[in-house]
């Protein structure tokens, strides 16, 4: 058995009020394990805005600021500036926001923060919809997915547009480090967050975090669903450091996308031709990622 590299210390206590099988709860737990006690977190409107509970019954063991939906990037910029003004350099400042608050409502503040080269961590825990407010589609909702605002049945209004690629948006900002992380691979998750401690400037993490309620799958298979996302190449694990792409997991046996989609009720309506189209797009994106890794290998 290999050496376990995940810190034993816990900074997320029992008593949070997440749904059963919540991937976002694991994302927070692993993030805090990686960054440790000297961490401050800013959370906008999202599931985690309520999951930590009310004072004094608080599930997180680090300071927390709850902010408005659109201002996470500005909030962590201000916290970082205040700490720097006091000469406090050893505190990790983290924006922890959902896909709606990042890819849509909060993208302007995030863009400004990273463009200013602010020394921050930003974790987008991606459950692929606005889950806390009723499962509405977000820019990160994948094509073909049912949500309450992309219904199926007589209308067939399921989402047709592609998922917004936040990693490439951050790469376009030329930040020092960005990476994908997945709650099914905690050691890779923790390693990438810990790596960010030694990088000066903005660090962006796209965290894959399934939602049983919105995805319509049993809560006990959350981690299995997340693992299938990576092993089908739907959600590859890689990092981009100073423009250099490195894939951190290459599946030995690729799972067909159909198997991944088939376990989720939000995709149950899809015709075979749409499933095949999604498979082709996943294959195309994987080949493109392999080429990026090859092309930037000497950077």
Provide the fold topology:
Blueprint: H1 23-35, E1 39-43, H2 48-51, E2 64-66, H3 72-85, E3 92-98, H4 99-104, H5 107-115, E4 121-126, H6 166-172, E5 177-182, H7 186-196, E6 203-208, H8 212-215, H9 222-231, E7 238-241, E8 244-247, H10 257-262, H11 272-295
Parallel strand pairs: 1-2, 1-3, 3-4, 4-6, 5-6
Antiparallel strand pairs: 5-7, 7-8
Helix pairs in contact: 1-7, 3-5
Task: Describe the overall structure.
This protein has 299 residues and is of the alpha/beta class. The chain has a single domain (23-295), classed as 3-Layer(aba) Sandwich (Rossmann fold). Helices cover 36% and strands 14% of the residues. The chain has an 8-stranded mixed beta sheet with strand order 2-1-3-4-6-5-7-8, sandwiched between helices. Helix 3 runs parallel beside helix 5. The two termini are 34 Å apart. The mean pLDDT is 95.
């Amino acid at each position: 058995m290999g050496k376990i590299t995940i810190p034993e210390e816990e900074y997320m206590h029992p008593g949070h009020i997440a749904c059963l099988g919540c991937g976002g709860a694991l994302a927070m737990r692993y993030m805090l394990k990686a960054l440790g006690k000297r961490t401050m977190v800013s959370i906008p409107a999202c599931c985690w805005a309520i999951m930590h509970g009310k004072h004094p019954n608080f599930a997180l063991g680090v300071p927390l600021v709850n902010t408005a939906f659109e201002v996470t990037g500005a909030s962590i910029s201000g916290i970082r500036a205040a700490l720097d003004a006091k000469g406090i350099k050893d505190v990790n400042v983290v924006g922890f926001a959902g896909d709606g608050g990042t890819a849509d409502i909060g993208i302007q503040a995030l863009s400004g923060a990273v463009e200013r080269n602010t020394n921050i961590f930003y974790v987008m825990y991606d459950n692929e919809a606005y889950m806390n407010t009723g499962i509405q589609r977000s820019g990160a909702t994948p094509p073909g997915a049912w949500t309450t605002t992309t219904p199926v049945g007589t209308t067939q209004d399921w989402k047709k547009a592609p998922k917004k690629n936040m990693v490439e948006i951050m790469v376009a900002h030329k930040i020092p480090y960005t990476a994908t992380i997945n709650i099914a691979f905690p050691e890779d998750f923790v390693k990438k967050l810990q790596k960010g401690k030694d990088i000066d400037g903005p660090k962006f993490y796209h965290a894959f975090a399934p939602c049983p309620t919105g995805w319509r799958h049993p809560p006990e298979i959350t981690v299995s669903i997340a693992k299938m996302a990576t092993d089908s190449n739907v959600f590859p694990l890689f990092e981009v450091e100073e423009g250099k792409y490195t894939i951190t997991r290459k599946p030995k046996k690729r799972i067909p996308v159909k198997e991944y989609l088939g376990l989720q009720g939000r995709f149950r309506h899809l015709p075979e031709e749409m499933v095949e189209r999604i498979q082709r797009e996943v294959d195309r994106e994987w080949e493109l990622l392999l080429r990026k890794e090859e092309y930037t290998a000497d950077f």
